């Protein structure tokens, strides 16, 4: 079954009916009602959240046991006058995350409701946390390993932000946490911001001496520079078309057909059926010893989009037993479903790192927006069981290959290299 990401919207007919009903019942210009004060607006939002989230989420009572859920909401209601907007949001984030369902989350309201970002981008590698993006004023940090955030080690900071992040396994926690660890209000919440409002990072270049860098809130209008561009890192193959839904290339040296599938959706400029037709025309024109399907950067969508690729592989006996699938923490939702299908249908060899969610879990998401604060949530409407025998915390690779910062700085892709070295099953 596909895991579809869909938005809940008011139909045009319903909207028109509501407009007509209002117009017919109106005999004179109404007296404008006073704008509700802040406390009233938040009470309305929390009431809306309590009613709608509980009614819409699959297995709500199981995932959010009573009386804990209602007690926490009541506590937030009672404390509205002394809480900032950001503190209310953090309480909701923690409450929603308590079910540990990857697909159910409160979106970080970046540069809204008191949430501001640092001018740095972070990423976890297997050997630690690193700075991979920065605005021009902080490019000295690019390519460095993070040793401390304030007085906390990265692992301590990770443990502190974990309650605010819905996660089913450690892979997704590390994949998601950089966005939270770049958010000033969350860093304040965990005690990583100094009294002067600055965040002091202790950093080190690989093999270099530690140094400190004091960072303040960033300007969202200033574009960040990537580690790869600033340090002129040689471009690994996986970085060739990062904005594409899907693309392929025949690798002459290894006689491999490399397919990067970045989004379980249809590119408006290139339907997937046309893409698959072109791909197999190239495959039929070359000696192909292995097919490598890269799902490491695919966060999901509609799981059936990939079917033309699977049908083409089934029709080619020479390729059916030579399929490799690259996976990692960013392989999520429908992309993980696709990896499971490729392993089941073709005995594909999975290479890389564990995926970011449980194979058996909730999905088929819809969205909810609180009427006054406009805070956005995503909730799950269906449970999927893709693994009948057991309930693993992630889809594990057959060949495990870590991602390290030195590899990234050298422009190497050890995961692809491992797939190309692996002995093809005859």
What amount of the residues lies in strands?
A: 15-25%
- Roughly how many Å apart are the termini? 31 Å
**CATH first level of the domain at 237-358 and 393-421: which class?**
Alpha Beta
Estimate the helix proportion, in percent. 25-40%
The count of strands amounts to 15
Overall structural class, as computed from helix and strand content, comes to alpha/beta
Figure out the total of helices.
15
H/E topology pattern: HHHHHEEEEHHHEEEHEEHEHHEHEEEEHH
CATH architecture of the domain at 237-358 and 393-421: Alpha-Beta Complex
Largest sheet: 6 strands, mixed
Apparent shape: globular
User: What does the average pLDDT come to?
Assistant: 91
Which parts are unreliable, with pLDDT below 50 for 5 consecutive residues or more?
4-29
- Compute the CA-based radius of gyration: 24 Å
Spatial strand order of the main sheet: 8-9-10-11-12-15
What is the CATH fold-level name of the domain at 237-358 and 393-421?
Answer: 2-enoyl-CoA Hydratase, Chain A, domain 1
CATH level-4 homologous superfamily of the domain at 237-358 and 393-421: 2-enoyl-CoA Hydratase, Chain A, domain 1
Outline of this structure?
The protein is α/β, with parallel strands linked by helices. It is built from 15 helices and 15 strands.
